[in-house]
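Shape is hard to put into words, and the shape of a protein is harder than most. The fold becomes a row of whole numbers, each drawn from a learned catalogue of backbone shapes. The outcome of that step, for a single protein, is printed below.
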Amino acid sequence: METTFKHVYAPTVAKQNSSTSLWKQFINWADQQEENRFGWTAVSIAGHGCVFTIVTVAMILFTGNNFIFWPFAIGAMTICLVANLAALPTKITIPILFFSVLIDLVIIGICLTNGFDLAASYR
């Protein structure tokens, strides 16, 4: 006599949504860019230092030379430069580069809303 019952267990497979957040996808992409590290360093230092910082400083000067923008423009370039000189991984340096460019673009936007005032540059 058999006293145990044999239960048939049929698990159902529920497909889970494996969507990752946009930030996580960006960090994964930045982590994969480690082999292009020197290219990102060159873009970061030369591109940001020779293009974005110069344009930002010119906009500050042409729109009245407001002192409050200077520390932010200098700080944006500094965080980018320090992150690259510290040889941090690309998953850190690429977001820092984009953040510092965002700071520069915000400064440029604010300066453009103030309007051009070349006479105030010499005061």
Remarks:
- The radius of gyration is 26 Å.
- DSSP finds four helices and no strands in the chain.
- The longest helix spans residues 37-62.
